[in-house]
């Protein structure tokens, strides 16, 4: 990225954040040149770039002014899924999403992959190399079923930030968070049982339930406060629900952080109906505000919360290192782990434990939080600018996902097929529903660096959305209105 592009992005973020308001005069070319230590021509190029994006307007002999902006889109309303147990579908769509990752020239705007290009990961490469150079046979052998002691000690220490008081005996290392969730589900459920889930919810959870023959009941979820406790209570009263699965911190895909009072109310409700809670906290450490939010597990007094997490989103998914604090279900979780994968990646566990112990993890986390928050500022600015009116957009409080809700008649599956011809991939909303709901929604990831290629891709998506909405309106309008439209043309 050139200097003028960086300066333009910096100014665009200031405009998006409201530091420069609509109609306000921007600093002069000369003052910006001095402030940022760049040439006058660099500032002029940056201003020209912002002018092309219609973010600013030049006025002869007066300078540059912030252009009138669209109002920020509203957040999605409380979701309204079918509130009865259903068999889970959508596997073919999930497989298409996974297959698209292999296309090197496709821009992955819907992927759950974190940024792996940060310099704060360099010490981890050294740790992996040093562990390999030791050539100790234990690094290539099986470790115990719980996981490497040194890593479990570090995980217990990190958990203090979320309010948890854990010992290494409370923790079981798994092959990523996906296995942590998988063994937790099997520890508390049998085939044919029912689990309550947020709606929308992570597609990996849905497919895990499908594989185990477990039905899901989707609970209405608010994009700001989380799962509806009122709807959940009604579901508990009507159905023999064995567990509730939630992502209360930096939710995927909505991005909210559930308020502490509602977390406590959820725990109280689960105690009243004697239901287990499977808590996915894989994004919790990526909350933009510090201290990071508390987990449900930190409020759990009777061991009913199975806390699942991993280093896949905070460091790298290729490590395949996650963990679960299963509480009262520890013996069952250990058995489920034994019959699935046995012990986990020994070499990676030792390297990761050393990476954390030497103090590299927290600086890396701080960098990633800042990186994703800056990216969100750029992405939300571009979505507001390039997408048509009449949409709803979530306002995440951490992580790197945003959820966009389009008019009801919109078909994001058709949109995704169209975008693949332009080598752009999104995650369609129906992946995040047990029954294929949210076909009019999509999930975008802002983990990738927001450069010119990404902006152009979002402009392409925005234009495709606008065309599709216009086509929907035409298809659903009365024949007389369509005739009037043709005459007007």
UniProtKB/TrEMBL annotation:
Pfam family, one: GntR
PROSITE patterns: HTH_GNTR
MF-aspect GO terms: DNA binding; DNA-binding transcription factor activity; pyridoxal phosphate binding; transaminase activity
PANTHER family recorded: HTH-TYPE TRANSCRIPTIONAL REGULATORY PROTEIN GABR (PTHR46577), TRANSCRIPTIONAL REGULATORY PROTEIN (PTHR46577:SF2)
Source organism of this protein record: Candidatus Pantoea deserta
Protein name from the UniProt record: PLP-dependent aminotransferase family protein
Domain of life: Bacteria
Keyword NADP listed: no
UniProt record similarity statement: In the C-terminal section; belongs to the class-I pyridoxal-phosphate-dependent aminotransferase family.
InterPro entries: Aminotransferase_I/II_large (IPR004839), HTH_trans_reg/aminotransferase (IPR051446), PyrdxlP-dep_Trfase (IPR015424), PyrdxlP-dep_Trfase_major (IPR015421), PyrdxlP-dep_Trfase_small (IPR015422), Tscrpt_reg_HTH_GntR (IPR000524), WH-like_DNA-bd_sf (IPR036388), WH_DNA-bd_sf (IPR036390)
Presence of the UniProt keyword Protein biosynthesis in the record: no
Keywords carried by this UniProt record: Aminotransferase, DNA-binding, Pyridoxal phosphate, Transcription, Transcription regulation, Transferase
Residue ranges occupied by any HTH gntR-type domain in the UniProt entry: 1-69
